[in-house]
């Protein structure tokens, strides 16, 4: 076997990051910049077997993330990084590789064909490589933004982490193509908010909502449904915190969990413990939809603000709860048993405010549709000034958490608050949103909404793989655009959503009909999905649909519950007028920036093979 | 009076550009990078009085422009620079200023309120400041692109130069606001093509087309029309070159000149010498529209390629020529006399090819319209594959020059060549186009057009100051989108232009009518301009008009002369489909770029006040 190609040697020495990592190395000179002991509050397994484990912390002051990657069974190397949606192509990577003689660590990127290249600017900075009892531990850091066009910008919201296992030496970095490797992705909110944890009340008690001893099916995806109930006579309490309980060893298997409260109008619900899509599942369980708690991989405990709690128990509240556990089992492991669930912390000493959940975005209706073959089609739902004026208390409400929701084609979601026609602040934004990763997220900053404010929720969809229009609705192949915002004090307003006026949509179908001299069924008995299905999707009809959605009046759902509207005229409402938009956050990339941050230069290496 | 504020001292020393320029200074150490003697092929006056004179050259290898600015009567300083459309706000500037004690030279920029700031990155590099007999001469250079977001990017096409006169000292750069200065703008093609000048034939003769001894009217704008004629029996010749003759002293007054040949169908034309808008001007002079030569301020001689010439004289060619001189006289100077004109170089030894002029873009028809209050509305005209297939010779034609043309609201013009649905190259582009500066420009690179190619001409309009739609047409308040391309060998194809199919436009008016429940007059007797005038310009109607223009079939003018079409079906033609677009030219701005290019640091200054 040849030695490393000159270009690699050159590159490695050029960036001064060559380091024999198979040895026990201590980069003594650099430990000053390493964070203190046990400094990694967040930890997730990257691969289904858990051989790669990532821990990290976030410094908002330095705008830097410190990563600690534990490689349990190192073969010839590993790659780790980030990409727009979890693809291994066009990814921003760190690579630890060997040519058989030496080992190298470098900031790299993969092109659209999956070939790996060393990055001209080295922004991942290796701080320590250390053999531990558990495996090789790599400590490195990276700024949120690097100003290197090849690099991923670490933003709020979902980050798609990617990894790959190098099974054998490569003569050069350029010889690696990700398509030949065992690779995978893991979604995570990397930039966790930096919120101080409120103290728990002294009388806090806990309740575990678990599906005991589930035999996890040997299939990739299982949603397990389990019904449990509160004790008879359980009085009104406030949930003040909850945290996940994940069965040890199943950390890579348990993807997300939610606890729903069932509808109070039914006296009781049948017990059930089985896959949610089972034919045995009682129909009535569909009425268990009121979210009490939601957790997803990588999330820690969820705390309510000190002055608020989520009420449960007591009169007018169902005693029945549904726990839903999503098992992600791509290796189709059979026979694994799991008892994961959620631990609720609650108090009988009710806090000053009840917390509530409000739905923002689009009404679940087919009038809002996305043409097929669109890569970034935007639909927008409004919570209008008229509705907030009517329904919010004079002192406003305070949103402290948010859960974004779409179905399969959702790619981005954002809610913005506008006041007097001017966009003021982002409530929550996820530019790498995935329908497979719907966490309740604490907001970095509580957003106060006053009567007369407008909340604008926009979702971006990719229908590149669809041949017919995707209409709004409840079905998994239909779409939604929702932001469940968690707020206090509780108001009667449960739903503040919109959809285009149906009459104007009919004008659109008529117009398409006349314009294209093709027949779109506009006969009165045709349903809106049927009408959308018969639209010939040429550029004109696509653009006019966009024009319609950004012009036509809307129908508002300003509702106390899903069926009860606030009094007032809610049809044919004007679209909120926005005279000034928030500027896109721009990265300041001074032309004066140096070649690379001061980082590890040549590292002296001691000791024999470990 | 106080000394300079600390911030200026700091800034000046920080950027190391402080230099006492009221003295005779020789920056000896920097002369190595100064260009050789008399190295400035291009020269223009900046202000109407000619006290500021700019000379420059272009290095395409270094992507740098060397400027020499002559300040004839220096007061307390001068500012010079570039901006998008000639405004003094948001301009990229060099400023020579004094605080009363010292003088400074620096790269600066003006904000949108006109206040001046020193640039964080100094990209104008002072090479020499010298007192000459004529005045102070400043020699400095600048790269085309600097990667500084505050800087203007010097591109092909029109550049709006701006200047200002500092009448008194300023305590700091930040104390200067452009609104308090005498300022102005001058349009110029800064990046002249780097074309080797073809040799003139040995038998070349010259002919001067001049309006002798014109008494220039004391008003800002005069288009002077002068009829002259070729000698009786003047046989067929080829024009191979022409150059301006500008009366000495009137360099700042003569803005542009064109020579038109009159229509051959009229036996004779009345003689006339007077303002073109005079009521005394004979009607028939409107038939003198065939361009023989065109010159604008800053342009040098225009050479035909060695193998081609523009035919004039002989049978079938009118003996009558119309010279049009545009006098730009903002100071309303009275009594000035001028005899400027154009010198044609022609030969009786006909060259291998006749050159021709072809019109690309939009048909002059009201069906192509721009809504009011649009800041960047694009209209596009096509020369389709079907037309080039039919009309071009198998070996194609070669475009060597181009004159872009719109009326008052035109802001950008570009023509792109596409082959097999893919954009291949730019024929001519002006991203800072001004209707007040319509030069014939030699192309940097001859563009060959083959049968089956498509030529796409797009114009961008700003109708921010209009209240009604601006329709296509001949009127100065109507719009055009034309590229007159100069090419050889001559073909019968004179016009290759398009417009939206009128039937589809009627569908648009119907649609607008039904959709808005307002009445757009669609009765058969209403003219298209009347119909456009009654459209309520809401966002929907604007967007649908855009969708119409980018979707509806077109009507082609594939014409031998303005009235004679090539045989074939030219109505209801499909829009050319473009599957791959040319990428926007991206500037490579490495993050590793240094603070500023190696430039003049502290300069030692000797001698007393001059």
TrEMBL record, chains A, B:
GO molecular function: copper ion binding; dopamine beta-monooxygenase activity; L-ascorbic acid binding
Compartment annotation: Cytoplasmic vesicle, Secretory vesicle, Chromaffin granule lumen; Cytoplasmic vesicle, Secretory vesicle, Chromaffin granule membrane
Co-factor requirement: Cu(2+)
GO biological process, one term: norepinephrine biosynthetic process
EC number(s) recorded for this UniProt protein: 1.14.17.1
Superkingdom to which the source organism belongs: Eukaryota
Record's function text: Catalyzes the hydroxylation of dopamine to noradrenaline (also known as norepinephrine), and is thus vital for regulation of these neurotransmitters.
Family the entry assigns: Belongs to the copper type II ascorbate-dependent monooxygenase family.
Protein name: Dopamine beta-hydroxylase
């Amino acid at each position: 076997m040849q030695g490393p190609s000159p270009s690699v040697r050159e590159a490695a020495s050029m960036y001064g990051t060559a380091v024999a990592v198979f040895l026990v190395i201590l980069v003594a000179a650099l430990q000053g910049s390493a964070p203190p002991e046990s400094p990694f509050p967040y930890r997730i397994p990257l691969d289904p077997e858990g051989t790669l484990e990532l821990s990290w912390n976030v410094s908002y002051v330095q705008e830097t993330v410190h990563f600690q990657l534990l490689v349990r069974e190192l073969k010839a190397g590993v790659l780790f990084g980030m990409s727009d949606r979890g693809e291994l192509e066009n990814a921003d990577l760190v690579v630890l590789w060997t040519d058989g003689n030496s080992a190298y660590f470098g900031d790299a990127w993969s092109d659209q064909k999956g070939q790996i290249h060393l990055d001209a600017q080295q922004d991942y900075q290796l701080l320590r490589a250390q053999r531990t009892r558990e495996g090789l531990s790599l400590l490195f850091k990276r700024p949120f933004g690097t100003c290197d066009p090849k690099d991923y910008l670490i933003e709020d919201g979902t980050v798609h982490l990617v990894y790959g296992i190098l099974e054998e030496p490569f003569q050069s970095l350029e010889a690696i193509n990700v398509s030949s490797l065992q690779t995978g992705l893991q979604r995570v909110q990397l930039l966790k908010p930096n919120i101080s944890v409120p103290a728990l009340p002294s009388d806090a008690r806990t309740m575990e909502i678990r599906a005991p001893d589930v035999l996890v099916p040997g299939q990739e995806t299982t949603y397990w449904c389990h019904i449990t109930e509160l004790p008879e006579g359980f009085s009104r309490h406030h949930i003040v915190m909850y945290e996940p309980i994940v069965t040890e060893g199943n950390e890579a298997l348990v993807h997300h969990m939610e606890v729903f409260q069932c509808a109070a109008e039914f006296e009781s619900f049948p017990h059930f413990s089985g896959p949610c899509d089972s034919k045995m599942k009682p129909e009535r369980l569909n009425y268990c939809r009121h979210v009490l708690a939601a957790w997803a991989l990588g999330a820690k405990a969820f705390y309510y603000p000190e002055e608020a709690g989520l009420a449960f128990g007591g009169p007018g509240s169902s005693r029945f709860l549904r726990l839903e556990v999503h098992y992600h089992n791509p290796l189709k492991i059979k026979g694994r048993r799991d008892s994961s669930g959620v631990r609720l912390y609650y108090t009988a000493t009710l806090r000053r405010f009840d917390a509530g959940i409000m739905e923002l975005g689009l009404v679940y209706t087919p009038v809002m549709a996305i043409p097929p073959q669109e890569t970034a089609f935007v639909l927008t739902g409004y919570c209008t000034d008229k509705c907030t004026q009517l329904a919010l208390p004079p002192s406003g409400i305070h949103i402290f958490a948010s859960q974004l929701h779409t179905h399969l084609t959702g790619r981005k979601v954002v809610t913005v608050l506008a006041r007097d026609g001017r966009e003021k602040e982002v409530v929550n934004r996820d530019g790498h949103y995935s329908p497979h990763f719907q966490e309740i997220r604490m907001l970095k900053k509580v957003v106060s909404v006053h009567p007369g404010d407008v909340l604008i929720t926009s979702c971006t969809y990719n229908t590149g793989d669809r041949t017919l229009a995707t209409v709004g609705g409840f079905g998994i192949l239909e779409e939604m655009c929702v932001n469940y915002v968690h707020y206090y004090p509780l108001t009667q307003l449960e739903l503040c959503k919109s959809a285009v006026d149906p009459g104007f949509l009919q004008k659109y179908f008529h117009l398409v009909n006349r314009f294209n001299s093709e027949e779109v069924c506009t006969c009165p008995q045709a349903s809106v999905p049927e009408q959308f299905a018969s639209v010939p999707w040429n550029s004109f009809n696509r653009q006019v649909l966009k024009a319609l959605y950004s012009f036509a009046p809307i129908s508002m759902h300003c509702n106390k519950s899903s069926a009860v509207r606030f009094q007032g005229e809610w049809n044919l409402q004007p679209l909120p007028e926005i005279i000034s938009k928030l500027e896109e956050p721009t990265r300041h990339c001074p032309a004066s920036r140096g070649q690379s941050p001061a980082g590890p230069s040549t590292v002296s290496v001691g000791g024999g093979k470990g």
